Amino acid sequence: MAQDQTLTRQERSSALGYATNPLDRVAQFRDNPAKQSEFAADPRRLELILEGDHPFFRFDGQDYGLWFTPQQADAIGASHLTVFLGLLDGIPTFARAHAARQPEQPAPTGYFTSDLRSIAVQGLMPAAELGILAQAKSLIGWHRAHAFCAKCGSATTPAGGGWKRECTSCKAQHFPRTDPVSIMLVIDGDRCLLGRQAHFVAQSYSCLAGFIEPGETLEDAVRREVYEEAGIEVSAVRYLCNQPWPFPSSLMIGCLAQAKTHDIVMDAEELEDARWFTREDVRGMLTRTHPQGLICPPPIAIAHSLMQAWAFENITV
Ligand SMILES: [Zn+2]
Asked: For tag attachment on the chain, is the N or C end more exposed, with fewer CB atoms within 10 Å?
């Protein structure tokens, strides 16, 4: 189904980066060879290009263009894998995987390439195209990492329009995966817990986060992560919103969490710092007006939305 804009507008998740996707994935036609052939042969067919992990665009100095005709894309380079993404206003769209560009080899004049995170943070593409790129990047990345069967070790080949791989030997079918990650703002009355990892940009603090483990609920994952990383025990957990995070293929599930204890015991392997911040601190970080210059992730990020909900909208656990 394509997104119903009147419905998704009301969802907190839809305001986040990579979350708006206008494609109708028509999953019911993935295993329909006649339909796939029809889509492939459609003269209106559009393709986007990923060079390795990096989207490749047309750029005229002002506007960025995501879509190419097959002839235009062939002239740019060879595709070693093409997958069906879905219908864009009825037009079949595909993602092509080209070889990664060498760092010393810039994009030719009239084109532009960059990593998807920079494209999102700099606001180079409309929200809807970021969502499509997230879908394409995660799917192509999955193919790249699953050339061999997890059951018997033989080679696998793409099938179903690119939405599964089949083993050439044991015939096992393998499907693209999405890895759930819990991300949480821990609240203690009028303060909240934020941390920073060593690789964060200077002065930046964010919500704690971690992968949900096998056999674990979202709520228990939140409690475990917060205790592991900061030594804080959590009681109630409330789900708020979620965000596709195509690095490589996570789904960030955002929660507010009620602190039960208060003394931070930080895991120095995970975090460089973890502290309680007041609502005023967080408001300053969100609006980039903090007196000490502290900042937080940009509005495209789910951490920003969780902090915004608590600091400005008085949403709590
Ligand atoms: Zn196999």
From this structure: N
Domains 5-145 and 179-311 share a fold: yes
How far does residue 34's CA lie from ligand 1's centre (Å)?
Answer: 27
Q: How far apart are CA 254 and CA 102, in angstroms?
A: 36
Query: What fold does the segment set 179-311 form as a domain?
Result: Nucleoside Triphosphate Pyrophosphohydrolase (3.90.79)
Copy the structure tokens of residue 196. Answer: 């920073």
Domains of the chain, by residue range, sit at 5-145, 149-177, 179-311
Task: Say how many Å lie between the CA of residue 50 and the centre of ligand 1.
Answer: 28
> pLDDT category, 103, cuts 50, 70, 90?
confident
Global pTM? 0.94
CATH number of the domain at 5-145, please?
A: 3.90.79
CA of 272 to the centre of ligand 1 (A): 43
Compute the average pLDDT of residues 200-223: 97
